[in-house]
Structure formats: C-alpha cells, structure tokens
C-alpha cells in the first residue's frame, strides 16, 4: 500500500540488544517493517480471534455440530450419546430418531456429506413427496439446527436499529406496529426487492374491508 500511495516505507529502528555474559543475543531483530507488522500486529490479531472463537464455541456446541454431521452423513460411528445429545437440544425422541436413521440408510437416493450445504440438501429431499411427515424426528432436528444463529450479530443489529425506529417522536408507538417497522428496517435486502407497482395492484384489487394493510 505504501508503494501504491507513493509513501516512503519507514525504516525499522533497532533497539540496543541486551546480551548475557556469554554474549548470546536474547532479542529478535526485525529486518523489515513488513516482518515487524506481521509478527506484532498480524499474529497477535490472529491469536485474539482464535481465543474469541474458542470461548464462543464451547465443547457442548462442538459436540452438537459433530453429532449433526454424523447424522446427515448417516454415519455408522454415531453412538447412543450422540442421539441423546440431539434429543436434548432439539426435544426429539431418541428411539424414533434411531429407527428413522436405520430406515434412511436403506434408501439409495439420500443426500450425503458433512458440509453445511448437506443440511439444506436433506431438508429439500425431506420436503419432497411429504417425506418430512414420515421422518418427523430427523426432519425436526435438521430444521432446528439450520435456524440456530452462529453469532449474536443479528440480535445486536436489531437492538441498534430499535433506537432509530423508536425515537422520541415515536414514543407512544404500539408493539405490533413497532415489530412491523423493525422487520422492514432489519430486512432491508428483502424490502428493497419489493416492486411498488405490484403492491399498488394488489391493494387496488382488494375489497374495502381488506384494504387496511398491516404495517
């Protein structure tokens, strides 16, 4: 970036090396500024991120992810403890889930894989031909796992937008209208794709009793 912006790259200022009695250096000297930034800034930032990930994803969460991975892959290594963990988090029946997995292993066209896309492939496959009603516990576990938020960023963004929507001029706003306005404000990617002409046409064909749109 310094070369692109025509900025002179600063020179590394070496400090005085402290030596022991045997004249062996005990301090590392950076030869370039790039090397200094990589060690003092880049590596330290990576350590901070890794520590944050380790504290966020506790052992119970890792066990749950591992159990779901073996479940979608219909692995033979899945044990009774994994089924009990899934039943605990997703409120499913352990015996019914074990029976459904045994039946699914006999199918030849079932999706396989352990990546995140495999869960959605399974959900699409179960929705076909009303398979979700046959394998209820299996479908329930995957559906609940797919809606678990990875981080709390969505909740934090909602609270930050709440102060913008409900300001001093809207202090007496009702809960139902507040939820509707927050939904439109948070899901801006969806609302921006709405065609206003389609909304007007739909409103035009409604009866007078149905023309009061819920905001």
Describe this structure in words.
By secondary structure, the chain is an all-alpha fold. It has 11 helices and no strands. Helix 8 crosses helix 9. Helices cover 59% and strands 0% of the residues. The longest helix has 24 residues.
Could you give the topology of this structure?
Blueprint: H1 33-56, H2 59-72, H3 80-90, H4 94-105, H5 116-127, H6 131-134, H7 136-146, H8 153-165, H9 175-186, H10 188-191, H11 196-205
Helix pairs in contact: 2-3, 5-7, 8-9
Unreliable runs, pLDDT <50, ≥5 residues? none
Radius of gyration: 28 Å
Please bin the fraction of helical residues. 55-70%
Task: Give the overall shape, derived from the CA principal axes.
Answer: flat
Largest sheet geometry: none
| SSE ordering | HHHHHHHHHHH
Q: What share of residues are in beta strands?
A: under 5%
From the N-terminal CA to the C-terminal CA, the straight-line distance is 49 Å
| Class computed from helices, strands and strand pairing | mainly alpha
Q: State the oligomer.
A: single chain
- The number of E-state strands comes to 0
- Mean pLDDT across all amino acids: 81
């Amino acid at each position: 970036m310094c070369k692109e912006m025509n900025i002179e790259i600063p020179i590394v200022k070496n400090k005085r090396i402290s030596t022991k009695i045997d004249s062996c250096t005990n301090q590392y000297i950076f030869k370039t500024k790039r090397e200094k930034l990589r060690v003092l800034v880049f590596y330290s930032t990576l350590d901070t991120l890794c520590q944050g990930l380790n504290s966020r994803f506790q052992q119970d969460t890792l066990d749950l992810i591992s159990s779901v991975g073996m479940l979608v892959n219909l692995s033979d290594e899945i044990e009774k403890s994994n089924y009990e963990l899934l039943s605990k988090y997703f409120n499913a029946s352990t015996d019914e889930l074990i029976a459904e997995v045994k039946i699914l292993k006999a199918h030849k066209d079932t999706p396989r894989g352990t990546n995140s896309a495999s869960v959605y492939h399974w959900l699409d496959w179960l929705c076909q031909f009303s398979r979700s009603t046959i394998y209820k516990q299996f479908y329930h576990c995957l559906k609940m796992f797919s809606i678990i938020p990875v981080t709390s960023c969505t909740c934090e963004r909602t609270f930050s937008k709440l102060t913008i929507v409900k300001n001093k001029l809207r202090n007496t706003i009702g809960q139902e209208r507040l939820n509707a306005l927050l939904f439109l404000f948070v899901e801006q990617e969806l609302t921006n794709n709405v065609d206003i002409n389609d909304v007007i046409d739909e409103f035009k064909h409604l009866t007078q009793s149905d023309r009061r749109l819920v905001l």
